Amino acid sequence: MPSLKDLKNRITSVKSTRKITKAMQMVAAAKLKRAQDAATASRPYASRMASVLANLSASAGAGGPKLLAGTGEDKTHLIVVMTAERGLAGGFNTYVVKLAKQKIGELRAEGKTVKILTVGKKGREQLSREYGDMFVAHVDLADVKGGNYTESALALGHSLTTRFEDGEFDVATLIYSQFRNVLSQVPTAQQIIPASAPADAPKVDLKGAIYQYEPSETEILETLLPRYINTQILSAMLESAAGEQASRMTAMDNATRNAGDMIDSLSLQYNRARQAQITKELIEIISGAEAL
Amino acid sequence: MADKLHFALVSPAKELFSGEVDQVIAPGTEGEFGVLVNHAPFMTTLKNGVVRVLEGDSVKMRIFVRGGFADVTPDGLTILAEEARNLDGVKVEEVQAEMEATLLKIQALDKDDTAKGALQAHFDYLESLKAALVH
Lengths: 292, 135
What we know:
Chain A: One of its GO terms (molecular function) is ATP binding. The complex is a heterodimer of chains A (about 290) and B (about 140). With about 290 residues, chain A is of the alpha/beta class. Chain A has one domain: ATP synthase, F1 complex, gamma subunit (Pyruvate Kinase, Chain: A, domain 1), CATH 3.40.1380. In chain A, about 60% of the residues lie in helices and about 15% in strands. In chain A, strand 2 (about 115-120), helix 4 (about 120-130) and strand 3 form a beta-alpha-beta unit. In chain B, strands 1, 2, 3, 4, 5, 6, 7 and 8 form an eight-stranded mixed sheet that branches. In chain B, helix 1 (about 90-110) runs antiparallel to helix 2 (about 115-135). The termini of chain B are far apart. Chain B is built from two helices and eight strands; from the N terminus they run ββββββββαα. Chain B is an alpha+beta fold. The chains are: A alpha/beta (about 290), B alpha+beta (about 140). The interface between A and B is medium-sized, with 34 and 30 residues. Strand 6 (about 210-215) of chain A pairs parallel with strand 5 (about 40-45) of chain B, so a sheet runs across the interface.
């Protein structure tokens, strides 16, 4: 049976923990709003880009540039694992890493070479023990301020296309957490190189007319494809950022509630122990008085 | 009512404009071109320059874009710009300040840093934006 003082100390410590988790929850809620707005604002561009690419690739056929057609091989896979810089966000990072591990396992079972590029510190930490020797690069998101991921996305896109052209890999898959809503973030694997237009991209009915290209179709595709890849990376980063905040908000909300429950049960225990002590003292006094 | 052209201008950051207009004049890499309603399907890359939106004979809006694509379909015109700013909202001094900040960032980077190319493009954009403002 813990003493009264022990109980009091524990109650104070749980109370301060609750203050911290409550504060983190509110910070996450404020950041979530911003991140969500940024993710929503980037969607029209991404979806229009996808439909432009769908139109173009439909008419380009198989003879397109390498970024679209692929290297013709399927040996070396690059897995880009996108997680958060910080923890304390519930299962957010773990779910992404779990999917990545599963994917890596599958590819290895098929006898492919797997390389890993990590984005965000947490994923790197969780993967380094098992797959540390497969890391090729890491992108740090700690410097990103105010949700401005454009520069990091451009840099990553550039490094991916350069590596691809140097023949470092045949297929690149991006594993990130897709933001559905505040309560659900879905870990998703998306192939980004060779690029493919999403199957659900709206096709435009040309009403029998033929597209004119200026300059040529191939030149347009060559400028469009790297940008399309950058756009996909950027929207993945934005979604991942929104998901991180949403996940942290939920996790911290739960933690705050748990702390509250704990304080209640500890207070009950404390009051009982105090009452027991008072009763005991009374009994001692009364039995002492009777003995006289 | 005469037919109108559906025009949308989006950049990665946001959708700058979406609506019905009379005519749009855009800076293609192979020359400036105008788009009216019922234009034939057409796609081109863009260079840095001003996209003008015309309502009747008067210019309703001027947007400065960096690179990107124009896609004309029977549904209308879509411009996908890497960066875009409404010219009415920017001041020369602000652009100048941003140019200096970008230049500092470029100088701070290593030579082979991958972000350098992107920053340089941003700087060039600001420079031409400033030129467009002064005139």
